[in-house]
Amino acid sequence: MSKLSNEILSRKTFAIISHPDAGKTTLTEKLLYFGGAIREAGTVKGRKNSRHATSDWMEIEKQRGISVTSSVMEFLYEGHQVNILDTPGHEDFSEDTYRTLTAADSATMLIDSAKGVEAQTKKLFKVCKMRGIPIFTFINKLDRQGRDPFDLMEEIEELLGIRSYPMNWPIGMGQDFQGIYDRHNKKIEFFNPEDPSQVEVKEVSGPEDPVLADLIDSQLLEQFREEMELLDVAGDPFEQEKIKTGELTPVFFGSAISNFGVQNFLEHFLTMAPAPVGRHSDKGLVDPVNKHFSGFIFKIQANMNPNHRDRIAFLRITSGKYERGMTVNHVRLNKSLRLAQPTQFLAQDRSIVEEAYAGDIIGLFDPGTFRIGDTLVEKDSFSFEEMPHFSPEHFAAISVKDAMKHKSFEKGIHQLTEEGAVQLFQTYNKIPEQQIVGVVGVLQFEVLEYRLKNEYKSEIRLDRLPFSIARWVDGDEKELEVFKKKQRNLALDRDQRIVALFENEFQMNTTRDKYPNLVFSENSYMKQ
Predict the structure, then answer these.
(1) Phi then psi dihedrals of residue 144, to 5 deg
(2) Which of 276, 384, 418, 461 is positioned for an S-S bond with 359, CB 3.0–4.6 A?
(3) Chain CA centroid to CA 54, Å
(4) What is the distance between the alpha carbons of residues 294 and 316, in angstroms, rounded to a whole number?
């Protein structure tokens, strides 16, 4: 058990969340660089270059320099097995982002120092807060002119409702950026704009150390000392317990593009971030150190290797140890499965894994056996908590342009639905029947069109519909029958449940008032 415990406790599995262009993919690359996973960090800016960011594996991502799917990357650093879940940060993200957060034990929130907390960050933060997971904050782009650090901390508190504790503090900003002061280790890392990779580190007795007068411009030094005094007097104290419960966020300053402050963040993060935590099931809390293997599917991705038309189900191990070739129980199907060739990842690059432990993410070859939210267990039979499913906000009628391609279109649309890239509906009581796709973010329409054309050779027609709200309807049987006969704009989801589509909240609220014995649910996911 001690070997099992040591292996599990060495795992750190976290997601990086941010608004578009805050530098998330760059930060991910630099973390992989420190872990030795890549020799040279790519950059999303060099789109004409043959090098692309490691975490952006899909062709559309390389062309546009954005992440549209969640990647999984793992590396070793000073005895820690680090698993990074790289989530899409673009404005029109998908449910994939939300679900990936369920597989993380902590999250790193990336904030642009010039823009502060942005809309996307708020949405993703809300999901982390719901789960009560620890949140670490990296304020990026300090080598550019940005907002006052105190203003940024105040905004984090006001908009996100979480207190903050700066682990390090910037000395200057933009053209005047001199470096960062590590409050815990009492050392200054000096920034060299000519060669940011050359970091000079100076240990000091504190902000008042007289040696600083020879190293820092006098005006900046005076400002730095005043800021440190203010932090010590009025700032929040460091409390590990509050960090653990997600009530206090440790804040780090740096510049990912210059690779400055990233290692300082990584080393502090690995000492404070939680090892794998227990997960709730219908039979109580499942301890990660339990010797019996268990895990859940949080993501399905088709065609990671276009040459093989494969489909991979990503499984988060929640307890025990995986060994190659082991047999597990697929709880939903009540069926034994042999896990023959699971893989681990550096984005789309993969390798066969012989063993893995709670906290690790492994990929399972999926011939159509898995659904998002499925539980796999070695012994016993239990299911983990339901996977969050979110109501789409954009809708379009979908059809294939070439009727001869109907078969490949049907295969593609159903596979992408099972991935969670889109939600698929069928019109109810309408002739002819019509297929409707619903997405959380409008970019998913473009991704859908691109993937059906490139992976399934099917060109589609998308006709946007005026709806912005979907609600799953249930309740009193008699009233439901009346509702189904009289209500317009009804659809069936893939599990044949009734869904009502509305153009706006007024329309939805009017319908609710008219049918008081029906329940209109925003959460669409129910285990089958």
Answers:
(1) -115, 160
(2) 276
(3) 16
(4) 9
Question: Cβ(490)–Cβ(501) under 8 Å?
Answer: yes
Residue 237 is classified by DSSP as: P
CA angle 135, 265, 119 (to 5 degrees): 40
**Which CB contacts under 8 angstroms, 24+ apart, belong to 7-10?**
7/81, 7/321, 7/357, 8/275, 8/276, 8/288, 8/289, 8/357, 8/358, 8/359, 9/275, 10/79, 10/80, 10/81, 10/275
Residues in CB range of 188: below 8 A, 6 or more apart: 171, 179, 180, 181, 182, 201, 202, 204, 212, 215
Which of 181, 151, 177 lies closest to 164 in space, CA to CA?
Answer: 151
Give which of 469, 477, 490 is closest to 519, Cα–Cα: 477
Asked whether 261 and 30 are in contact (CB, 8 A), the reply is: no
Query: Which one, of 36, 22, 51, 42, lies nearest residue 82 by Cα?
Result: 36
Instruction: Please identify which residue in the block is written with the tokens 């990660």.
Output: 288
C-alpha angle 251-257-258 in degrees, rounded to nearest 5: 90
> Which residue's structure tokens are 């432990």?
357
User: CA 406, 409, 415, 421 torsion: positive or negative?
Assistant: negative
Encode pLDDT of 2-24 as tens digits. 899 999 999 999 998 887 676 77
Q: How far apart are CA 166 and CA 153, in angstroms?
A: 9
What single string gives the DSSP state of each residue in 366-420? -SS---TT-EEESSS---BPPPP----SEEEEEEESSGGGHHHHHHHHHHHHHHT
Spatial separation of the C-alpha atoms in residues 153 and 366, rounded to whole Å: 45
Query: What is the mean pLDDT of the segment spanning 480-500?
Result: 93
Distance CA 247, CA 239 (A): 10
Q: In this model, does residue 350 exceed pLDDT 70?
A: no
Question: Which H, E and C letters describe 246-286, residue by residue?
Answer: CCEEEEEECECCCCECHHHHHHHHHHHCCCCCCEEEECEEE
Averaged confidence pLDDT in the chain: 84
Closest to 460 in 3D by CA, of 407, 392, 421, 409 = 409
Q: At what angle do helices 149-160 and 119-131 cross, to 10 degrees?
A: 60
CA distances from 219 to 98, 210, 215, 226, 421 (A): 45, 15, 12, 11, 53
For residues 271 and 343, give the distance between their C-alpha atoms in angstroms, rounded to a whole number.
Answer: 28
Residue 83 sits at the vertex; the CA angle it makes with 80 and 85, to the nearest 5 degrees, is 155
pLDDT, tens digit, 9 for 90 and up, residues 223-242: 999 999 999 998 899 999 99
Strands 135-140 and 248-253: parallel
Residue written as tokens 């078969």? Answer: 407
Cis bond upstream, residue 432 (ω within 30): yes
